[in-house]
């Protein structure tokens, strides 16, 4: 132990004598280790620990598939009780009044045993009781975030009445920090029991019978009883569902449901966002950058060890064993890596702050997962620092210890040793990783460019969105109709270039509403079930999104309740069901409504950027009073989006100061969130690709500079014998030509493999896209040439007499 401490102190003194080298090494390592620590924090929060504050998460199971009715849930819970304790939940938005600012809360309706099944303890007050599945006193539990933000962390909020959806509700508890339920991408801020929900239901939900078996609205989660295997739990739940269906004369289709571990679904496995893919891209980018940094520093240490050969030879001659030299060299590299790790944690704080502001689909950000640089991240950074220190320090340490002291002391030659091939191999590794990062970044960037250039059939630029829910604010249909008609008129009156309209379904937002349809003059084929996407929109909707009217007309202010029921359809519907027969004037029946087609508009993307056009039907919102009570998106096109935001808030507050306004953002942000993997991947890979290009260039420069310095005598003799400057430059530069060429070829191969792994994230670009591959190879070749030219040029100007005298 004493000898180890002596080695550490010697390493510290050695680095103090080379402060510039130490500072550069620590800075390079801080960047690589800090980025990896930040990504680990996100991976830890989202994938590795997706159920914070939940007791024994491995014991939870999710019932994935169709939702069930409240009676169905109770029957399944009773039938499976011996093997699985089953709870139910459903996310619902709720309007909060009485807080500092009225707003819409992300909420959840849960069974009375929900928190007990998940094994969560309240931070304040209590959770629900099973008796609260039945109607009774309206109660709620707040998330810690809502408690802090809306109620100033006041502990007396427990027992206080607040107003949800205009109804008094008593707060009975506060959930612990970090708890976000058991579903991926669902971040409840408030929970209410099933028995409270009927009094809170608004709009069309008010007419639904909570106890009806025809209303399937609940998702199921369960906890295995002690000693029950997952397979047995799965069988118990599926059998309970089958028995419940049989008891009510319903057919049971096993494929409707599957039972999976909750830790998988809570981590987003199987979800449309594919978080594991996003984090794989991020992890690949930062790991590649760190490996390049390690190769670069190993090269620097090799050069540093070569410059200290005589010093090391003297130590060996005085009795220092080779293992002692290896230990001293590793102590130096470990000190550097630990210093880089400490600085990296500080850098990770800034990186994590930037990453958590990244927008996710559904008006959320990565901050909702509450990643932190806690003990697990610090331990990860420590282990990574130690591994990195050994990784980039082991080769220089072994090289230094392998030198023969007698040879080193007797030799005065400074010609290059054949062993410098090790440095060439490190250069090749840097080049390969650099090219792979640059090429993969290029693939994602080109994919992003192609995706953004896809013809959406509408225009998002200059469009501002806002969400309101008149139903949650307890509007009656007549009042809702007045609000829906008056607000767009007030906004359009503020500027000649402003167009404002409402919609119940926003394209590319993930909220499409598919309904069965009957069409005048169309006879379905056997087994065919015609279906269309349906939305209620306001006059000006198609102008606001610049969806062209191909035939007929769009809606006007005259298309209101009491006027003839009309509809607008898209070209996809007209082509599929009325090809060659004309769609204008025909009737369509959807969901109990019947409308006459008065217009045909162009096709626009609805669910995703790559979907084919689907049949769509729009009806005037003023002819659908109940639709105005659901969640509405306000679409405002303006020459000044910033002014539009201010105008939206001002005019809504003028009409109703208590109405919450949510989701204020540009439409382009919605579309951008659909390309989250490509944006993050292209951005980070480009960042680390650029940094790796600099590091690789620096490594090539260092190797050639060191080589030229060691070969000064040889080069001086060549010049004295008549070698021209161009020949000397070629001779010096040729040393790295091989490693660079081999590394570039390997990097391109790695890029193709990475592109194939990311194939489902690429739009219109192949994994072997020649433009991306050629651009990355060209960038690397230019950087390598520049890095090699400078020391080669300096070497070609060597004075032969000076070079010979220096020996």
Residues in β-strands, percent: 15-25%
Taken from the alpha-carbon principal axes, the silhouette is globular
Structural class: alpha+beta
- Please list the strands of the largest sheet in the order they lie side by side: 2-3-8-5-7-6
Mean pLDDT level: 82
Give the uncertain stretches in residue-range form. 412-419
Proportion in helices: 40-55%
Terminal CA distance: 42 Å
Q: How many E-type strands? A: 23
Number of domains: 4
What does this structure look like?
With 807 residues, the protein is α+β, with helices and mostly antiparallel strands. The protein folds into four domains: 1-50 and 291-411, no CATH class; 57-265, no CATH class; 421-454 and 677-807, no CATH class; 471-658, no CATH class. 49% of the residues lie in helices and 16% in strands. Helix 9 runs parallel beside helix 20 and helix 14 packs across helix 22. The chain is globular. The chain starts with a helix and ends with a helix. Residues 412-419 have low confidence and may be disordered.
């Amino acid at each position: 132990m004493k000898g180890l401490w002596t080695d550490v102190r010697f390493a510290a003194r050695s680095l103090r004598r080379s402060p510039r080298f130490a500072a550069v090494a620590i800075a390079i390592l801080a960047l690589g280790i800090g980025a990896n620590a930040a990504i680990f924090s996100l991976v830890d929060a989202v994938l590795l620990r997706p159920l914070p504050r939940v007791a024994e998460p491995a014991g939870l199971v999710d019932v994935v598939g169709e939702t069930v009715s409240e009676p169905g849930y109770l029957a399944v819970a009773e039938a499976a009780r011996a093997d699985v304790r089953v709870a139910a939940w459903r996310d619902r938005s709720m309007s909060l009044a009485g807080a500092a600012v009225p707003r819409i809360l992300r909420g959840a309706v849960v069974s009375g045993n929900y928190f007990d099944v998940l094994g969560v303890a309240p931070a304040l007050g209590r959770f629900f009781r099973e008796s609260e599945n039945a109607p009774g006193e309206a109660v709620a539990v707040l998330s810690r975030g809502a408690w802090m933000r809306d109620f100033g962390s006041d502990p007396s909020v427990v027992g206080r009445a607040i107003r949800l959806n205009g109804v008094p509700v008593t707060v009975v508890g506060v959930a612990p920090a970090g708890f976000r339920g058991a579903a991926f991408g669902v971040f409840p801020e408030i929970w209410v029991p099933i028995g409270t929900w009927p009094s809170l239901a608004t709009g069309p939900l008010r007419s639904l019978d909570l106890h009806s078996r025809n209303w399937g609205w609940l998702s199921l989660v369960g906890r295995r009883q002690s000693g029950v295997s997952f397979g047995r739990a799965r069988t118990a739940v599926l059998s309970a569902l089958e028995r419940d269906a049989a008891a009510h004369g319903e057919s049971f289709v096993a494929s409707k449901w599957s039972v999976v571990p909750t830790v998988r679904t809570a981590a987003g496995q199987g979800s449309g966002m594919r978080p594991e893919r996003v984090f794989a891209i991020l992890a690949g980018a930062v790991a590649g950058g760190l490996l390049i940094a390690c190769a670069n520093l190993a090269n620097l240490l090799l050069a540093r060890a070569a410059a200290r050969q005589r010093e090391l030879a003297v130590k060996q001659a005085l009795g220092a064993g080779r293992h002692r030299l290896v230990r001293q060299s590793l102590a130096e590299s470990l000190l550097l890596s630990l210093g880089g790790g400490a600085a990296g944690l500080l850098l990770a704080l800034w990186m994590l702050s930037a990453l958590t502001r990244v927008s996710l689909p559904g008006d959320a950000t990565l901050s909702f997962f509450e990643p932190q640089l806690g003990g697990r991240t610090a331990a990860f950074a420590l282990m990574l620092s130690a591994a990195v220190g050994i990784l980039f320090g082991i080769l220089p340490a072994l090289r230094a210890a392998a030198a023969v002291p007698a040879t080193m002391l007797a030799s005065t030659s400074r010609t290059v040793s054949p062993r410098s091939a090790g440095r060439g191999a490190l250069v090749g590794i840097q080049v390969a990783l650099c090219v792979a990062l640059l090429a993969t970044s290029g693939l994602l960037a080109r994919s992003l460019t192609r995706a953004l250039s896809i013809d959406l059939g509408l225009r998002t630029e200059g469009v501002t969105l806002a969400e309101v829910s008149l139903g949650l604010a307890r509007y009656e249909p007549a009042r809702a109709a007045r609000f829906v008609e008056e607000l767009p008129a007030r906004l359009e009156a503020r500027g000649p270039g402003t167009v404002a309209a409402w919609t119940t379904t926003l394209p590319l937002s993930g909220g499409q509403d598919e309904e069965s349809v009957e069409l005048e003059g169309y006879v379905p084929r056997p087994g065919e079930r015609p279906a269309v996407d349906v939305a209620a929109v306001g006059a000006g909707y198609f102008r606001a999104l610049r969806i062209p009217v191909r035939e007929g007309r769009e809606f006007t202010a005259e298309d209101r309740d009491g006027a003839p029921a009309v509809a607008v359809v898209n070209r996809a519907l007209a082509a599929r069901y009325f090809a060659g027969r004309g769609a204008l004037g025909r009737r369509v029946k959807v969901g109990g409504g019947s409308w006459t087609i008065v217009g045909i508009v162009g096709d626009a993307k609805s669910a995703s950027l790559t979907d084919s056009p689907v049949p769509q039907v729009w009806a005037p919102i003023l002819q659908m009073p109940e639709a105005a009570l659901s969640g509405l998106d306000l679409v405002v096109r303006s020459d000044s989006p910033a002014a539009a935001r201010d105008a939206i808030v001002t005019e809504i507050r003028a009409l109703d100061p208590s109405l919450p306004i949510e989701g204020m953002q540009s439409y382009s942000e919605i579309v951008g969130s659909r390309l989250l993997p490509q944006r993050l991947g292209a951005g980070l890979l480009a960042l680390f690709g650029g940094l790796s290009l600099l590091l690789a260039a620096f490594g090539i420069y260092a190797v050639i500079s060191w080589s030229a310095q060691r070969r000064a005598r040889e080069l001086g003799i060549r010049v004295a014998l008549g070698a021209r400057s161009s020949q000397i430059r070629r001779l010096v530069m040729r040393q790295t030509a091989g490693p660079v060429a081999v590394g570039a070829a390997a990097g391109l191969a790695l890029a193709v493999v990475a592109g194939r792994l990311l194939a489902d994230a690429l739009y219109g670009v192949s994994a072997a896209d020649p433009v991306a591959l050629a651009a990355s190879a060209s960038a690397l070749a230019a950087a390598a040439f520049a890095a090699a030219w400078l020391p080669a040029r300096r070497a070609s100007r060597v004075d032969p007499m000076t070079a010979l005298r220096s020996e």
